Amino acid sequence: xxxxxxxxxxxxxxxxxxxxxxxxxxxxxxxxxxxxxxxxxxxxxxxxxxxxxxxxxxxxxxxxxxxxxxxxxxxxxxxxxxxxxxxxxxx
Length: 91
Hints:
The chain is about 40% helix and about 20% strand. The protein has helices spanning about 35-55, 65-70, 75-85; strands at about 5-10, 10-20, 60-65. Strand 1 (about 5-10) and strand 2 (about 10-20) form a beta hairpin.
């Protein structure tokens, strides 16, 4: 995880920003040392799911952002504002 931002108001919001490298967001596994990477990616995903489940049980609303989306998703700021239920800054 690259960054985690917490927002507390009446509801608890958490934005989690991940790098794609060790989680294989695009499901590509490096061509060398395949067994190591398969295990590494599986363990990372398992841990992330466990952490997310625990946070949800504690009442947090989660929004996941992948590092690659920051540069490529032109609608990312709108999606974040919608998640936080904030009015658009341009309205």
